[in-house]
Amino acid sequence: MKRIAVITSGGDAPGMNACIRAIVLTASQHDIEVIGFRHGFRGIVEDLNQPLHPNDMRLVSQRGGTILLSSRYPQFKEVDAARQAAAVLDQHDISALVVIGGDGSFRGAHHLDQYWDGQVLGLPGTIDNDLAGTDTTIGFTTAVDTAMEAIDRIRETAEAMARVFLIEVMGRHAGFIGLHAAIAGSAEAMLVPELEPQPKLADLADSIRRARQAFPDSSYLIVVSENLWPGGVEELARQLTQATGTTCHSAPLGHIQRGGRPNAADRILSMQLGQAAVHAVLDGISGHMIGVEQGHVVRVPLHLTFERDKQLDSRLVDLQLGLQQLNFASNVVKESA
Amino acid sequence: MKRIAVITSGGDAPGMNACIRAIVLTASQHDIEVIGFRHGFRGIVEDLNQPLHPNDMRLVSQRGGTILLSSRYPQFKEVDAARQAAAVLDQHDISALVVIGGDGSFRGAHHLDQYWDGQVLGLPGTIDNDLAGTDTTIGFTTAVDTAMEAIDRIRETAEAMARVFLIEVMGRHAGFIGLHAAIAGSAEAMLVPELEPQPKLADLADSIRRARQAFPDSSYLIVVSENLWPGGVEELARQLTQATGTTCHSAPLGHIQRGGRPNAADRILSMQLGQAAVHAVLDGISGHMIGVEQGHVVRVPLHLTFERDKQLDSRLVDLQLGLQQLNFASNVVKESA
Amino acid sequence: MKRIAVITSGGDAPGMNACIRAIVLTASQHDIEVIGFRHGFRGIVEDLNQPLHPNDMRLVSQRGGTILLSSRYPQFKEVDAARQAAAVLDQHDISALVVIGGDGSFRGAHHLDQYWDGQVLGLPGTIDNDLAGTDTTIGFTTAVDTAMEAIDRIRETAEAMARVFLIEVMGRHAGFIGLHAAIAGSAEAMLVPELEPQPKLADLADSIRRARQAFPDSSYLIVVSENLWPGGVEELARQLTQATGTTCHSAPLGHIQRGGRPNAADRILSMQLGQAAVHAVLDGISGHMIGVEQGHVVRVPLHLTFERDKQLDSRLVDLQLGLQQLNFASNVVKESA
Amino acid sequence: MKRIAVITSGGDAPGMNACIRAIVLTASQHDIEVIGFRHGFRGIVEDLNQPLHPNDMRLVSQRGGTILLSSRYPQFKEVDAARQAAAVLDQHDISALVVIGGDGSFRGAHHLDQYWDGQVLGLPGTIDNDLAGTDTTIGFTTAVDTAMEAIDRIRETAEAMARVFLIEVMGRHAGFIGLHAAIAGSAEAMLVPELEPQPKLADLADSIRRARQAFPDSSYLIVVSENLWPGGVEELARQLTQATGTTCHSAPLGHIQRGGRPNAADRILSMQLGQAAVHAVLDGISGHMIGVEQGHVVRVPLHLTFERDKQLDSRLVDLQLGLQQLNFASNVVKESA
Hints:
4 copies of one chain form a homotetramer. Chain A is α/β, with parallel strands linked by helices and 337 residues long. In chain A, 44% of the residues lie in helices and 18% in strands.
């Protein structure tokens, strides 16, 4: 009989708990025990193990965060750390490790795979959705919903005061949250790293000026990805205020985007992936991520998930740019009317 | 130059307003005017028209319901009604009509198509998701989120009081909301019309009895589709109470499932379909629904959307039945332990 | 040194956990241990005790339900049950018992007080707010918020379809939730038990008919308290449909009103009461409820909380009746215009 | 017959729309017309009037922001501005002006009162709750709920990653939001302007260090009022990180605190004050704010609302400081154990 170990690693993401539940329940059906290690890879190295029983899983799916706790652990790049982890896993008679995490966690999993005989599987868990080989990741759509709700709130006060806001959303170095939140929030403009060419300050200022002229009583919201503008949205707001003569307010949404109860889509995805992970263990698979493409569960070699860049859906980019232009076009129409 | 008319028809669904917005803005980009008729097909017949300007679209995407109002209008099956609608549309120089609605509305659109020269297009707008030819419909995922949040609330009080609840969700004659809400809500059991064979009362009672024996301090939630059990969940609760000796409570969620702000997925879907509808008008398409399959926008002959039954995703059915069995299995384990 | 015991009893209410936290932390400050008994009075009788440590309290305030579980336990009226409870409490060296619950639970506490030497204190925990001697109860404002959010959702679909809805809210035999939810939901009419005389079916039907005539495109929502109309809102809807010729839909909100995260007001109230309960223990008080009147913590003999009826705030009744009449008045104005 | 004018002024607050609704409906009952001016005092000076009919009020209470729009307008300090406003009001046959706003808006109302014959009334509308003479202000409890929900989200990710967060909340120069959000969010520490003496950096650092030592796996949240720490929470986070050797994260909540649907308490308060304002107009009152103290509607001379400082409820301060100390005390216990 096998035992499976589970960790959550890197930034936590809503849905991780539902995923753990599905792993534990599915494994239990096949008479496989599951144990967790707390705090991700560090927890393996330091043997912070925690048994996971089916009965403990009854009320976890609803909760954000991760019952196994998580951490970033750059030291795991070292060979010694991987060897120590392998020793701990062997000591516990673990035959497979499931790593729920993102890019960096999958590098760690890939690294461990070279120093340990057991099976290593990755499940995509990151709000940033920046993993190639899967259409979506655990936590992504919940983070988009959270960002959208925050934008809805800002829209109301911005509309009441006829203000310009620069709303910074998460995404690390990718524009997935930015793009989806911009569409969902009906943003007047969007700055995400994937746009080529990037809009220049003068263009943005020009767009704001024309919008203010055409609709002096209206709000104007720009969704901006983090790590994009030097100095962040605060600095961008300062520059745009200077360039336009209109006060531009900054609103970095920050860590509220990580928390919160997972939405239904993330819970369903998480459970689907958790169940599929146990099936992959039974199939003897190792060194792969279990993802979802076009509704189908897929198995992708781990290194392919972080070596390649994942592209934004160009149809959604076109949708947002189209609706932005339309807003602008209608301004022009109104101006000449 | 063309003019496009838009109606929302049948039960309203969150996202309809975002869809109207995308139609109006995209049409405006191509210098096409859009007018709406209020109250669906009845509004065409009675010429309850309403101009739709890009500027009016600024704050509608966030809102549930439909700014165009909707209605059921069975009289539209008559030939005279279709001819009258055609006359009104011609009178307004309409060259294309976009119908946002479900099954019945698409029958109406198909009917009109035979008595009117203009283009007729359907956009899937129903929380029930019971339209073939599209993976999802406007309002479906928001309704699932709403049902899940209600289940989460009921879970808390059920857990505090160690109670059994039968939660009735919408879906007309399909189990989409039931299946997705059951998974997302970690329901202990699920009754949806597509299960074959349907669980019998004795099976349900047996499952409840065993769960109560194994976990006397825990809640037990069964998600039940509407129109499935004769007399509804109230009657089922009475029968199960009698059969098990445990009070089984009923909780019909009802119309709260229709309302509420659309989630991000529904807003994005709605705008994507609204934009695609205008593109289809420009392409000269008629008699088709614009849907989404595996992330791609598709055009499906209207009659195929309501003549065929849409199947539940069998992988998700397996997921829920698997997790249910596991719960049960773990009960057994515990009992024998 | 003293030990304090805590139970939650009767219907659970959001905020009970925050209250438990405040009791445990405040007691800890005075070096007093706290233990809980699960399932209310039954848990004392059956000695289902559970230690409560300050460190376990870190993440409970956010959660609905009650970590101590609750139950209704009518058997506690018996003298033997009270004597058995007293014995168990003595066995654990308990010098004070804090009962968080409503009307029935306070009767139980009062009963126990006659057969046990320790101090007995009640904290008002019920969503119904039907306890005299305190302006508000733990869970009440959260339940009102939940009912209001449900009404907001129903408003959206009712408005889209121009429908009449009868929305049944909780309250046992009191109209507190009904009154507050009606105002907050801008209901067109309200049926709560305290109205004298009660509106007759003919009056309601008349009001609906006139509203439909004046505003055929609008929704009309009536908030109805549970246990008021024979047969519930379903029966009232049937009768009104027949009397008005307009389909009147029923929407019983049910148990979703019990669940959910407590709002800020309920968390603050709960912690304030929990802290005050420990202070009352230190002051040697027994046989009292700790409540809040006009912002001040008050101590009220237990029997006064359930022997007297608590009145609705007449100013709020006038507010709602005034706004209802105004709606109606404006109809009349519009009709004659 | 009289006409009443209404403006919303200064920062918008959830509930302003419900207040406008109550004014319009109550006035209509007494056959009094109501007109609004958009953008606050500027809208009077520039005559940006907008009729307000009872029928337009049907769906506004649910919405955040203000349908009348608002603005800050420091120019209104000038005598000429007040005279111009008086002229415009006279021109429209206005006999009473209701100003919904905060401190600065009431100064404006007081200023206008000296140059205009009509009645001037203030209704407390500000999320900051920093107006003397009323226990609470329109928007305050909704802002606290919004801050609390954000803190709940941050708690989840902070707990998963065992992180320290400094959460900046609004309040201008008062600690009402900070105090209430700290209690409701079970914050480990609180920095609000009213504390004397203010905790020093060394004390905060010391408290964090000890908590990290006692509970290395736990989150630690400090709620900080805006405008309190030079450089804001970002700077405080940098200093604390340096002092403690633990990364302290900053999370300024920002403008999301202004938006959102008003909670039930704010809707009820808003309607109560709106109705009372019309009654005050009928009573011939001028130069007063209508507020609420201990559940009763009160009328307070305008200048008393901004000349005096409003104190925090010392019982709530003690509650939070008590629970904080307890957390700390229990740490000590644990350390020595």
